[in-house]
Amino acid sequence: MRVVIVGNGMAGARLAQELRARDADLPITVIGAESGGTYNRVLLSHVLAGTACTEDIALTSLDWYARHGITLHAGMRAVAVDRDASSVRTDDGRDVAYDVLVLATGSTAVVPDIAGLRDVDGVLRAGVTVFRTLDDCATILDHARTARRVAVVGGGLLGLEAARGLAARGLPVTLLHVRAHLMERQLDAGAGRVLRRTLLALGVDVITNARTAAVHEGRLRLDDGRQVDADLVVIACGVRPDLELARDAGLAVEHGIVVDDRLRSVSDERIYAIGECAQHDGQVYGLVAPAWEQARVLADVLTGRTATYGGTRTVTRLKAAGVELAAMGETHLGESDETELVTFVDASRGTYQKLVLREGRIVGAILLGDTRSAGTVTQLFDRGSAAPHDRATLLLASARSAEAETPTRIPDRASVCQCNGVTKAAIRQAWQSGARTVADVAATTHATTGCGTCREAVCGLLDWLAAADPEPALEAS
Amino acid sequence: MAVATHCPYCALQCGMHLRVAGEHVSIERRDFPTNRGGLCQKGWTAAELLDSPERLRTPLARDRRDAPLRAVGWDEALERVVTGIRDAQRSGRDRVAVFGGGGLTNEKAYLLGKFARVALRTPNIDYNGRFCMSSAAAAGNRAFGVDRGLPFPLSDIPAADAILLVGSNAAETMPPFMQWIAAQRQRGGSLIVVDPRRTPTARNATLHLQVTPGTDLALVNALLHIAITTGRVDADYVAARTTGFADVRRAIAAYWPERVEAITGVTVAEQRAAVELLARASTAMVLTARGAEQHAKGTDTVSALINLALALGLPGRPGSGYGCLTGQGNGQGGREHGQKADQLPGYRRIDDPAARAHVAHVWGIDPDELPAAGRSAYELLSSLGTDDGPRALLVVGSNVAVSAPNARRVRDRLAALDFLAVSDIVLSETAALADVVLPTTQWAEERGTMTNLEGRVLLRSQAVTPPPGVRSDLEVISELARRLDAPSAWPTDPEAVFDELRVASAGGIADYSGITYQRIAAEDGVFWPCPSSDHPGTPRLFADAFATPDGRAWFVAVEHRPAAEDLDATYPVYLTTGRAVAQYQSGAQTRRVAALREAAAEAFVEIHPDLADRLDVIDGDQVRVVSRRGEAVALVRITDTIRADTVFMPFHWGDAGCANLVTHDALDPTSRMPEFKVCAVRVEAVA
């Protein structure tokens, strides 16, 4: 069975790896438009911020494919699928035959219709760039060397990370967002406001309700007349799935290529789709976690294992220094008969936390400014597990930490000497039988005779016992 | 007179003195370099087993499977064993199997391995040490070309500015060890503990990463990811002393901290803090134990940790490195001298023609007569009584009915045998199932060497005369070999066996040839390799080169994958297992010591208050912990030291509270280690 994967991005390359891990001999061909190996797109903002280098985000090298017996057509574009002939036509005129075809064509950055962004040939002008690929990243960094002011258009996850990263390089950055608050898909208005304050403190100027009308000679003009100086404009206005190939091939396409629970096109049982170009159960995902989950499931399906994809509960985790943010699920819901809210807001410290629960389970959460609970909350959300009855423990770290244990405050049954299982009660008993020094206690209970680290605790207990019970035996005599 | 010896239990092998006054044996402190006088409760009470009323003092046998065990003479017992072996051998040599233990001395492990290969000529010998450190051993071998628990003495530990301790609750499993950590902390060193529980070990750590069971590998890859992206990699070291970093680096690009936070439950900030502590330290150690290793991906998890240590430039540097805290008393030596299915004495591979020729020569047989590698521990147990599996089994010093995973299956397999013989000091749960039980000498009643977690070969001395009616394992093995008309020599004196072991190990990785009983006594133990009598032994490995063919340490790219059995609606809680301070392993010894029985009388299950709340159970309730394989009954112990999605059970009990009735038998593809540390369960109140 010849498997042909169109797309060598995070979904396609991952599938190739997952397939090879399951079957050493399966013939696999990958057609990828980019000429280099694959890299972790999620970490591009780190490269932009200077907290990672290109080598740090490389996932598969070109020689990996050869070493694992995978045919890679790199720098080659698939231009057509001939379903009758079961082959894929590439832009250099080659026909690649398949038994199973996987479309992992991903998506392209959206460039909004703003006057002055493009030159007469429709190419983005110098100083204007999208933020989608490693090449884009290099272009931005190249311009950032000489730029005096930067504007980032788009206040979603990627725009925020780009803005923060460039600000960290010492550039004045203005973040323009068309909606009323930042990251409106993931955050409610309150969180958006707090986030804005946080960014301001980090040197990112935020303008919301900013409809950019035109870009001209180092200046952006908004439709309400406001103007923003910027000699570098980074466009982060989201992505659009690449569906042309699928559409031309006559596959069912809505917002993405429509696939079933086995990630198979509903139109052709030999064609599958994963990643940002796939639409499962009405959802098109723009994050890597679902893409990798789909790659895993599809690798199982294609190697004869039983597996189905049931959707992914995605968590958005901002990767920007100085901004702690995790958001997931239905964060916009308010209090109602069905939903319960738990919130904690301390805007002056940049903290905005909100849990949305339904039937005792977390269905949405925002953790901004304090993500100490992110691990727990994410897992509860992901698994749909019951939340603890005391919800406060999920938000307030202080509610979690146990009180400091001092020898005098611990209960009688608590172990003082771990090595020898000596309880506080046993040491009290030793005291009552006349033990007055650590050596006395050791002789009768073996406390302190293991690793010796409880010596201080035993001393403390002896002092406490002495203070509470000053030599009763002597007084009695 | 006080006799200098060592504790009978864990791999720390604390030095102790035994003072014998008439019938009474008392234990006194001994200032030995590993424990410096310290002992835990198990050590202090160890002598109680010497005259325990539960001590076996005569061989036992049953006339039919359903008949009770009755006392028999040695001659009858041994003849029954020989008959059982010969009957099974009629269907093939491999129909007889041997299962050894990590508590056996080097001499016993060696002779048992020789017995299997020379007297029985079966490939089927393995031991419960497979359940102990096999994953760390496999990962150590593929990275360093050698597997020695710690490549440095314990006394180096205080020199580490930072220690990453993964899956070890040493404060309860190896208490006197904690003095080294205490000294390290005293010096201002930091301690990072990775554990799903806030154990007594984790409680005093600088940083505790309370990881989701079964996700250590992802966590460690994220730590390396952070180390790489924050420029913490020791590039000079990586260039000069390692191979394979490029592939690891690419694999690691997929483990950014935010992704791993969702997998592990360990926050990004905690991950970063851990790397900061490790990277800032000028000396650092990475130490693992069963929590990291007892997984179906245990070998890869340890490899991930070794990758991290290599990237930070630790192995082979003073006060730094990677090490495994071996669990069982002689887990280390037990695997070096032929008890493991794929190894011959001296840590030689049984599939290496040169190794076969050397050992066959020592044993006076033709190399072609040596069997090939046999089944790994659980696979061996799992094959008992099956169509092509062994029909007769000899178990020496192991309580597999309690200590193996999926214990119900193991008990079914034991019952399917035509013949089972067990050699032990008490009537363990496994011995109770046997056709013939052979009572043997223990610890203070015999001499022998043990190799502790440091790779230090120690001498156990005889302090008391064994009770009448028992024989040493060496005597039993030799006598069986004689009755089976086996070729080669079968000495019964421990020192004579050790001298043969020295010759057999010469030239191997674990070379003992320069070690003698006299040297061990005079030098407070000798570290292997010690290839000649004038060689000082090797306390520290890797200073100049690793034991790989190119002398470099090898990075191995490893990927996280979910536990063999993940949570679902029917089994919504993780079970993880481990040990309690007052018990040891299957409890066959420690449950028979009054003070320890009192301290930890019966099985319990740790449950977080949130989970207890949902289950509507309170402290002291009886609950059933149920998995797809079986169930165990235990008392609820409510504690906020455990994750709310996980329950914990110690595995020391053999009755209804046997945790291994529940555990999973998925095996690591490389080490064949079972997945003891995570499976999916549900918890039900017992009506």
Write the layout of secondary structure elements.
The complex is a heterodimer of chains A (about 475) and B (about 675).
Chain A: E1 3-6, H1 10-22, E2 28-32, E3 38-39, H2 44-49, E4 58-60, H3 62-67, E5 70-74, E6 78-82, E7 87-90, E8 95-97, E9 100-103, E10 107-109, E11 128-130, H4 134-144, E12 150-153, H5 157-168, E13 173-176, H6 189-201, E14 204-207, E15 212-216, E16 219-222, E17 227-229, E18 232-235, E19 239-241, H7 244-248, E20 257-259, E21 271-273, E22 278-280, H8 288-302, E23 315-317, E24 325-329, E25 339-346, E26 351-358, E27 361-368, H9 374-383, H10 392-395, H11 397-400, E28 415-417, E29 422-423, H12 424-432, H13 438-445, H14 455-468, H15 472-476
Parallel strand pairs in A: 1-2, 1-9, 2-5, 9-21, 11-18, 12-13, 12-18, 13-14, 20-22
Antiparallel strand pairs in A: 3-4, 6-7, 7-8, 10-19, 15-16, 16-17, 23-24, 24-27, 25-26, 26-27, 28-29
Helix pairs in contact in A: 1-8, 12-13, 12-14
Chain B: E1 2-6, E2 15-21, E3 24-29, H1 41-44, E4 60-61, E5 70-71, H2 74-89, E6 96-100, H3 106-120, E7 125-127, H4 134-144, E8 162-166, H5 170-173, H6 178-186, E9 190-194, H7 200-203, E10 207-209, H8 216-229, H9 235-241, E11 242-243, H10 245-252, H11 257-264, H12 268-280, E12 284-288, H13 290-293, H14 298-311, E13 321-324, H15 331-336, E14 343-344, E15 348-349, H16 353-363, H17 377-383, E16 392-396, H18 400-403, H19 407-415, E17 419-424, E18 436-439, E19 448-451, E20 456-460, H20 473-483, H21 494-505, H22 517-522, E21 526-527, E22 553-554, E23 573-578, H23 594-599, E24 604-607, H24 609-615, E25 622-626, E26 631-638, E27 646-650, E28 679-685
Parallel strand pairs in B: 6-7, 6-16, 8-9, 8-12, 9-10, 11-22, 12-13, 16-17, 17-18, 23-27, 24-26
Antiparallel strand pairs in B: 1-2, 2-3, 4-5, 4-18, 14-15, 19-20, 20-21, 23-28, 25-26, 25-28
Helix pairs in contact in B: 2-20, 3-20, 3-21, 4-14, 8-11, 8-12, 8-14, 16-21, 17-19
